[in-house]
Specification:
It is built from 7 helices and 10 strands. It is α+β, with helices and mostly antiparallel strands.
């Protein structure tokens, strides 16, 4: 299948509209976001080899998010009939979709667990670890999480002031720090131990400070 070129800033589809195609990303980056209380919340940034917009084809429901080209991209648009043929005739694509849906379910479960914590410091710390696991890419300084501190704070329901306070502690401990519009997880092992500590506490326990 031939690809189509899409320039930075082009909106592939908008939250709430009907969906007739999904997209396979051959190159470039696509941002997936929703609007909450007038504010954009970034859910994911997808790159080459990823698919976006498949849920509207699977359950014939309106789009649950907006997809915007963030870096010039080459995409393959796939309609429902072609999608069905791909699933039936291509085991690799079918397995890739199953894995993606499994990751999405795991992400939803982890977000529910995260939001059960009443302590905003715990929610943000768990959010950093979750984002690194879902969206992180290897970086010379650790793991790069393509979300800014305000974006992540909005996702997990904490104020920017609370997020900045936690980020300062993580930076002081050499665990993670903000770099531009991203977060660098410098010591994944330390972060994993800290997250394990948070998970083993009662959900209404408060962190120190």
């Amino acid at each position: 299948m031939s690809g189509m070129k899409a320039e930075k800033g082009e909106v592939l589809f908008t939250e709430g509209e009907s969906g007739e195609v999904m997209y396979v990303i051959r190159s470039g980056t696509v941002k997936v976001s929703i609007t909450s209380h007038g504010t954009e919340r970034v859910l994911a940034r997808l790159g080459a080899g990823e698919i976006v917009g498949e849920m509207a084809l699977l359950n014939s429901s309106p789009r649950t998010a907006t997809a915007t080209v963030e870096e010039d991209a080459v995409l393959v648009a796939v309609d429902a009939y072609t999608f069905e043929d791909m699933i039936i005739g291509n085991t690799e694509i079918a397995l890739r979709l199953i894995r993606k849906l499994a990751r999405r379910l795991d992400a939803a479960d982890s977000m529910i667990s995260l939001l059960m914590h009443r302590d905003p410091s715990a929610r943000f710390s768990l959010g950093v670890n979750r984002a690194a696991r879902l969206y992180g890419v290897e970086h010379e300084q650790g793991v790069l999480v393509p979300l800014s501190v305000p974006e992540l704070a909005d996702q997990v329901g904490v104020t920017e002031a609370e997020a900045d306070k936690v980020m300062h502690k993580l930076s002081s401990g050499g665990i993670a720090e903000p770099v531009g519009n991203d977060i660098i997880l410098r010591d994944p092992d330390k972060m994993s131990k800290f997250v394990e500590f948070l998970r083993n506490r009662p959900v209404d326990a408060k962190s120190d400070g």
